[in-house]
Amino acid sequence: MVQLRQLLPYGSLLNQFQSSVRWSSSLQIRDKKVIQPERSFKYADLSVRLAGPEQLQVKPNVSALSFGKYFTDHMLKVFYHEALGGWQMPEITPFENLVLHPASKVLHYAVELFEGLKAYRGVDGKIRLFRPELNMERMNHSAIRTGLPTFSGDELIKCCCRLISIDQEWVPHSTASSLYVRPTLIGIDPTLGVASSDSALLYVILSPVGSYFKKTGEDVGISLLADPRYTRAWPGGCGNYKVGSNYGPTIYVQREAIERGLQQVLWLYGENNEVTEVGTMNIFMFCINDDGEKELVTPPLTNGLILPGITRNSILSLAREWNQFKVSERKFCMDEVCQLISENRLLEFFGAGTACIVSPISYIEFIGQPLHLPTMKHSEPIYKKFLKYLTDIQYGVIPDHPWVIPIE
What are the angstrom distances between the C-alpha of 260 and each of 115, 160, 256, 400? Predict the structure, then answer.
């Protein structure tokens, strides 16, 4: 129960609220590829309760921003109660703590999911969201897998835009920073038992952020620990869904990497040490293949090991549009990486994700073997080209790009 009066007991609540419940016109989920929610909240029903002067926070200096430390003055909340007809009306409220029943399914069975996207203040002063429709699509896929209710992505985008417009002064006036948008959906059904949750809460919080990695720059890339003893995901699992249970168990391995003086973990899978992801990022390798061609390679989405990243999607789209080198979504293993390094055919390694955008990788420790990568040694590396093009879109240097939604 996020607000005690909204959850218990269901019987009395049903009588009290049933007449006021509203939802959108009926849609159906036909399959997992095309997600059309049965019912959804509507932006037209959104109510706003602004924070009072005593609730407003001091905004941090842009130079002091780190990732996920500060939060804005308001948040979006939408409750779902099956007994009350499904989705309730969305509400923007002052930023506040959540109150949960001790038996809430999110606390016992990790019935939850989340997304991450960003709002950018452009060089022209306009605020833009980058490809939010893909986040909504991925969020609904995660909801199906975790037994949580789906919704209309368009309606949530509209609600998020209104939230950002209210807290627009929290969007940094800087092209090195942005406003991180974190939609989260949790099961709040106050009953024990591994089952779909009949009650849920969708909420959105905002956080002004700077660089994700502190020790990277023009001359320093990310360092990785690649240890075959640890696996992030496996075929048939949930590695391709953005759920918290994918991330909590990685903290132990991440701590081991840090203790060795490294920054992130390169996740491997199987006897052949198949390369999957790096930290919370998708992975890309740029190399000269056996045919003498330059090739950009990233693992495929076909086996359920890889999260379908929005930045990953964007890089692949740009690379295919540029048509300057071969682009492949295929499996590759550490043996291939080591061979390419030994033959001076590995050119670049980099990670890609919403938080980090594009981050170069310069070192991998693999089974005690130090692998030094030449990513940072090129005068015009492709990772920089991708990074510049994406940020030019996000910050409005390239105006009116179809991948952005301006916030009025």
Answer: 30, 40, 6, 45
